[in-house]
Design brief:
Layout: H1 11-14, E1 18-22, E2 46-49, E3 61-62, E4 68-70, E5 75-81, E6 92-99, E7 102-108, E8 110-117, E9 120-125, E10 132-139, E11 146-151, H2 166-171, E12 177-179, H3 212-222, E13 225-230, H4 236-249, E14 256-260, H5 270-281, H6 288-311, E15 317-322, H7 328-339, E16 346-349, E17 353-357, H8 362-398, E18 402-405, E19 410-414, H9 422-433, H10 435-450, E20 453-459, H11 485-496
Parallel strand pairs: 1-12, 1-20, 12-13, 13-14, 14-15, 15-16, 16-18, 17-19, 18-20
Antiparallel strand pairs: 2-5, 3-4, 5-10, 6-9, 6-11, 7-10, 8-9
Helix pairs in contact: 3-4, 4-6, 5-6, 6-7, 7-8, 8-9, 8-10, 10-11
Length: 498
């Protein structure tokens, strides 16, 4: 630890209006490409065997890091890398490296052209041919293939010193903070004990999420504050381990935003059921949902106190209490339960501009068209969102807290069977790509600032749009802000808050 005082991401900066970002989760099909070693975002090994259906091979024997230690006769293991829509990733000569002995193959968009030395190969990649496939054909028992790396062209000499793709770092350089919720696989997390956290030695970072050390490395390189989510099942010892790793890994004195889990009020996630069960067990309220809110406040304070102990006080912490934007009553209940046991700094909500299209509203929405949806957004959606911001700010102000946003942006999406209506999906995508969406974001961010909103973390960074939503501010790693109205609006606003 250098113990430096950060100049761009300190506590005061985050307690005024500032821009942050939620990064998209690591998957083999994620279009963000944060790492120059693309094997970091490979999929869990797929077991194959001669004469069987796809993925129907025998159960694989793996080491603790997830590498294949033994293969049955006529079997192999494979995984896709850069499984990105339209082949939107770099072509060129990649470098494949591994430790241990065995036989490794490259297929799909890649082919080995040269062996440079033991466990070191040149791989020609044509991204237009789809994903790259990495296959393990043979392993040497006791010295199996491990520590696999597949490094983008031009980075084979520097990837160990800096794992991040330079354009990724540059794209988000105006952010004051980043939220690692999806990087950590927070939703439905099973992390309970200290040794459950992801490791730097893991074969990939898609199964269990990014190691805390990697999250802190990004913070160090960008001088941004990490907004971390504490797993809902984590024991006190696991929370202390998490806080200790963060404290020891950050080297620029950044402030850390600490949140207990993510959307613990949201019934689609296991963390919601956990807090309700714990709240009922502790007899915090008669109704399960109210018991869950009370437990959220109680457990948040317990988590904060552990972080305070590790960090030697709260000077570098922003302790946020999560709540539901559309229902400020929830915030009041969580705050009341929390502040009787300790201190916090902010309420965090997700003030989305919401247009959830249910099946019975499909025809009505299609009839609106792009123009009609923007008229509706101006007439109804944005004013309603501003009302939610004001309601939650009143709760925050009454309790001496700041108001922050853990997620934010548009929320135009089909619900249930409406997701499968292709015309609706195309319409909502057209709305998101329209220049008027950028204008809507500008007014939305101005309204957040005008109504006392502080740090706001947009959701999400880069990701392809689908029937499940148009969450990415931009869709592909090679796009720039001029072709992405949402991204341009956010970056323009971020520039005004420096």
């Amino acid at each position: 630890m250098l113990g430096l005082v950060a100049t761009a991401a300190d506590r005061d900066e985050l307690l005024k209006s500032a821009a942050g970002i939620n990064f998209s989760g690591p998957t083999d099909y994620a279009s963000e490409l944060p790492f120059v070693d693309v094997f970091r975002t490979s999929r869990k090994w797929i077991s194959q065997t001669e004469g069987a259906g796809w993925g129907q091979g025998p159960e694989l024997e793996l080491d603790p890091s997830g590498y294949v230690t033994r293969l049955a006769k006529d079997a192999w293991a494979e995984t896709p890398v850069c499984n990105i829509e339209s082949g939107r990733y770099p072509s060129g000569i990649y470098t494949l490296m591994h430790d241990g002995s065995g036989r490794i193959e490259i297929g799909g968009a890649g082919s080995i052209t040269k062996q440079n030395g033991p466990g070191n190969f040149s791989v020609k990649v044509d991204a237009s041919r789809g994903p790259i496939w990495v296959r393990i054909r043979e392993v040497e028992p006791g010295n199996h293939i491990h520590n696999i790396r597949l490094v983008m062209p031009g980075f084979e000499g520097v990837y160990q010193d800096n794992p991040w793709r330079p354009d990724f770092l540059a794209m988000w350089s105006l952010m004051k903070a980043f939220r690692s919720m999806d990087w950590q696989h927070t939703n439905n997390s099973t992390i309970t004990n200290a040794d459950d956290f992801p490791s730097m030695d893991d074969a990939n970072w898609t199964e269990h999420g990014l190691p805390l050390e990697v999250i802190c490395d990004f913070a160090n390189r960008t001088n941004q504050s990490p907004w971390v989510c504490v797993p809902h099942l984590a024991t006190d010892e696991a929370v202390r381990h998490m806080a200790t790793v963060i404290h020891e890994s950050l080297d620029r004195g950044q402030c850390i935003v600490v949140e207990y889990s993510n959307e613990v009020w949201n019934g689609q996630f296991s963390q919601c059921h956990h807090v309700q069960e714990r709240g009922v067990e502790l007899k915090l309220a008669a109704k399960s949902w109210e018991a869950g809110w009370s437990y959220t406040g109680k457990r948040s304070i317990e988590v904060f106190k552990i972080f305070e102990d590790v960090f030697g006080g709260a000077e570098r912490l922003i302790r946020v209490l999560p709540s539901q934007s559309a229902n400020a009553y929830v915030a009041g209940q969580i705050v009341q339960a929390a502040l009787k046991d300790g201190e916090a700094d902010a309420i965090a909500i997700a003030p989305y501009m919401g247009m959830n299209v249910f099946p019975e509203k499909i025809d009505e929405t299609l009839a609106l068209g792009v123009d009609g949806i923007f008229e509706k957004a101006r007439r109804e959606i944005l004013p309603e969102t501003i009302g939610h911001i004001r309601d939650n700010y009143r709760v925050a102000e009454q309790n001496g807290l700041a108001l922050m946003a853990y997620e934010a942006g548009q929320h135009f999406v089909g619900i249930g069977a409406a997701m499968d209506n292709e015309k609706l999906t195309k319409l909502l995508h057209d709305v998101n790509s329209d220049d008027r969406m950028g204008d809507l974001y500008r007014d939305y961010l101005a309204a957040w600032q005008d109504n006392h909103g502080r740090l706001i973390c947009l959701f999400a960074s880069t990701g392809t749009w689908s029937k499940y939503g148009s969450w990415g501010l931009t869709q592909f790693a090679d796009e720039d802000s001029e072709s992405s109205p949402k991204l341009k609006a956010v970056l323009d606003w971020a520039g005004t808050t420096q």
